[in-house]
TrEMBL record:
Lineage: Bacteria, Bacillati, Actinomycetota, Actinomycetes, Kitasatosporales
Organism: Streptomyces sulfonofaciens
The name this protein goes by in its record: UPF0256 protein
InterPro entries listed in its UniProt record: Acetyltransf_17 (IPR041380), Acetyltransferase_Eis (IPR051554), Acyl_CoA_acyltransferase (IPR016181), Eis_dom (IPR025559), GNAT_dom (IPR000182), NAcTrfase_Eis (IPR022902), SCP2_sterol-bd_dom_sf (IPR036527)
Record-stated family: Belongs to the acetyltransferase Eis family.
GO terms for MF: aminoglycoside N-acetyltransferase activity
Amino acid sequence: MPAAPEIRTLTEPELADWIRALYTGFLRPPTPTPAAVAHRAATFDYSRTRGAFDADRCVATFRSFPQQLTAVGGAAVPADAISNVTVSPTHRRRGLLSAMMTADLAEARERGDVVATLIASEYPIYGRFGFGPAAAVADWEIDVPRTGLDPRWSGPDDGGRIDLVDGAAVRKAGPELHERFRARGHGAVDRDDRWWQLATGQVGPALDPSWTEPFHVLYRAADGTVEGLLTYRADDTWGDAKLPMNTATVDDLIAVTPAAERALWHYLCSVDFVTTVRTGHRATDDLLPLLLPNPRAARPVTRADWLWVRVLDVVRALESRTYAVPGSLVLEIADEYGGRRGPAAGRYLLDAAPDGARCVATTRSPALTLGAAELAALWLGEESAARLAALGRITVHDPHAAATADALFRTGRAPWCPDVF
Ligand SMILES: CC(=O)SCCNC(=O)CCNC(=O)[C@H](O)C(C)(C)COP(=O)(O)OP(=O)(O)OC[C@H]1O[C@@H](n2cnc3c(N)ncnc32)[C@H](O)[C@@H]1OP(=O)(O)O
């Protein structure tokens, strides 16, 4: 029987081999370019980058980094963001992911992170570790000629203006705009400098020779404040009868006012030649379809789980968000994975009010018993307790408790994480 692969953190000389394993797991051409290695070398925290090594070959990858996740009400909570998870096909289903995850989550809890986050490649992987789908996304395809929008539109009529700008202008205005955006949207995560460099091509061409420059547009309100950013690409498709049939695809559209959101969508649907708009991943309750005079012109093409959350510290997670109405609830959280007690396990009394909440361990009888994954699905307002109870995933001890939980936890707008990480 060959020795089990050794799981440990990385040293810099092993990075190229680690990236090769990463590309292998994601079915990308395996050998990284020197630029890709150099870029990651400059941005990685090796103490949070794990690999599994069989003899001298890296056969599994796992990385985490610090992140700020916006809770309901706008507070940023420290999150352990998990990414780059792969196990090579030669070593699958031997527990390598489980071992790397267990080690990372233990460190995150120790560090004081409130939650762990990830974007799951496939639904069945992470529930077993206490992650729950916490913010879904939806994509629409807009049939532009059917939207009912005025085809003679030539810009916002609200005093604002739209400007095409270059990547340098986006790197200047984008981060501050995004800070305002994420402070008002639960489910959003922070973006570092590297995010803006990648989005604007400062490092893109070196990392990926097929990278092409997108179009960037800023919306400024009448007083000059930047309130929205749109980044999009377009193809070059023409029909047989010399009719333009171009598709514009959104890379990023963030706005801090409905006026900016409305103007940016209207702008994109007004670009000459563009007959189809692909929206990219939006909030499931995005304003978009209803911004169009004919909402059916926006055909839903995707609705899927996106951001997954794992609560590591129940007290701080519940105290960090706001609640629409006052109320109290005793929750029993059943949390076990890999045969051990998980960090969310316990019985908690939540005393919630619109201006804050208090959560303490309690011995009182629970109103609801739920798993860590279900707690995550409720925490950002994504899921309904009544629905989880109907599915048998929440045990209801008090007949009013599911309704109370929904009154407390649900939010007027759906959570949304526009980013992939
Ligand atoms: C945040 C991100 O980076 S998402 C990207 C995740 N990576 C990928 O999808 C790339 C392709 N897939 C892979 O690399 C691997 O299959 C991984 C990482 C998903 C799983 O790694 P493994 O080492 O095989 O997982 P491990 O052996 O620890 O499995 C633990 C349990 O999860 C189950 N499991 C693991 N992966 C899957 C899956 N894709 N679908 C269903 N069940 C799964 C296993 O069957 C096992 O179940 P058991 O305990 O009941 O026996």
